[in-house]
Write a structure and sequence with these properties.
The complex is a heterodimer of chains A (about 400) and B (about 210). By secondary structure, chain A is of the alpha+beta class. Chain A has two domains: about 300 residues, BirA Bifunctional Protein, domain 2 (2-Layer Sandwich); about 60 residues. Chain A is built from 13 helices and 16 strands. In chain A, strands 1-5-6-12-11-10-7-9-8 form a nine-stranded mixed β-sheet, sandwiched between helices. The longest helix of chain A has 19 residues. Chain A is elongated and about 95 Å long. With about 210 residues, chain B is α/β, with parallel strands linked by helices. Helices cover about 35% and strands about 30% of the residues of chain B. A six-stranded mixed β-sheet of chain B has the order 2-3-1-4-11-5, with helices on both faces. Chain B has a five-stranded mixed β-sheet with strand order 8-7-9-6-10. In chain B, strand 7, helix 5 and strand 8 form a beta-alpha-beta unit. Chain B is elongated, with a radius of gyration of 20 Å. The relative contact order of chain B is 0.20. Classes of the chains: A alpha+beta (about 400), B alpha/beta (about 210). Chains A and B meet through helix 7 and strand 8 of A and helix 3, strand 5, helix 8 and helix 9 of B.
Amino acid sequence: MDIHITTPEGTRDRLFAECLERRQVQEALVALFRRRGYSQVITPEVEFYDLFVQSGNPMPQEAMLKIIDRSGKIMVMRPDSTAPIARVAATKLKGLALPQRLYYDQTVFRSGSAHNGGSSEIAQCGVELMGASGRKADVEMVALAVDALRACGVSGFHIEVGHVDFFRTLAGRLDLPAEEIERMRTLIEGKNYAALNDMLAPHRSDPACAALARLPYLFGGAQVLEEARALAGDCDSLDYLAQLWTELEQAGYGGFVRFDLGLVHQIDYYTGVVFRGYIQGAGRPVLSGGRYDKLVEKFGRRAEATGFAVDVDAVGSCLQVECPRLELVIHYGQGMLARALEVLDAQAPGTCELSPCRTLNSTMNLAREKGAPRVLVLEKSGERWLEV
Amino acid sequence: MSERLKIALTKGRLQDKSLELFEEMGLDCSPVRSPGRRLIHPLPGYPLDVVLAKAPDVITYVEHGVCDLGVVGKDTILEKGGAFYEVLDLGFGRCRFALAVPRGSDFYGTYKTRRLASKYPEVTRAFFEKKGMDVDIVKIEGSVELAPILGLSDGIVDIVETGATLRENGLEPIEDVARVSARLIVNTASMKLHKGQILDFIGRCQQALDGRN
């Protein structure tokens, strides 16, 4: 009886064009990261569950794929690369001078909900700049994010930048208990205009209220910074973003950078500038990152850090990658292997293959079956081309 | 430059109410009202195409970005969740989510684990989790009222519109779980990529809704 086993929910076999797309994106990103001075690290696919829980990873525990080892300890399939790299930076790289520029090109695993069409295996390429705080590091990171999507060859994309302190400052001006602020944060994150208005109605007289109610609308070009200032008055985070914008614009990145002051996700994890990348045609962000200054010191070495990850397959699916077609089958006789390989290696990859058949007749049938238009016959007596 | 956006409407009552609202906004909805065999209905004079779908599918389409906008009940949003912007309460399709039990029964007056039947197991779970109560939840696809009558459950969590069906079956609502109405939802990437167009649409909706009050 034939064995009949499919792949587990959330996993898939990736064939041909999907592999080329993934490879193309990975190669473009890795080349860029290396050029910008980043060195690769590879961390284990399996780590202790505690690593992610104790470091304050915002991921819900049900999203992690768990394994129990022989001693009874709980392990997870790496759900994220940043916490493991922070662990490495604070321990094994303790002796190295900061900042450290690190990149990774590895899969993370997240168990999504069933039948959602999403994959549990997410190929990510990302960077972490550890031990650098301040505007120059943030500018470098946003510029790198733009260059990353540009290097992948996609068009119609932009990077959207926010700052977690803007929301924190505004919320701090209202006298509200922590759980109310959290509820307000989720409403702003979900751009839930109506419910946010209802929630803020009792505080209408407070000047901070107008800016908070408007927060879900404060996204778009650099003019939103002006609009925000008009509503919120002086605010360090707005000044910071304005300076960031000036530098990015001067460097020629203005056309790719926008702002969303309502980017308030994972606010306990991020400590400053946050950003996301969107491409025309992808229904969700394809790049996500920001500043996380408190993570590395949890592992024993103080290092302010920023970084981002690119969802490789989400970018890949926006590319038009075509699989090469088989153009030529080589039929070679006794003693002609070297010549056959020489011809084969000179062709574009994927367009030519050797025939394993003994007779020319079988080779012709093979070429017909595979749709190759031509056969090259290599024999001691000479070479000839045949049309199929 | 304005590209056509797609909106998914929940079939049935919400669809009719949505079209009424769109017409108040000055949109010509005749292609949706006389659909023929087409599945996608472009509105003349406004860059919007309408598709009709079952409620959970509206969320799926919007979440995956194949539709930019959607109209769906809060009940489905609570049950299914998902990553999208929930921008407006459209005010129609109002009803309540309630816990209903057989008339006269004392649902909370026991230490026995209670069993609930519902089409909305997630909403039910979250509701009792907040109370710190362990309950058994049985998912029912059709008439949920039948479950307590047959002795399958001690109560139900369901949408209550008039309460007539409950009354006729000897049930009474004893507690509100949530207020429900139709919501306008937006795909997160579309919001960013088509800001002007989407805010224009939201603004028109808001204006029409304000005009009603």
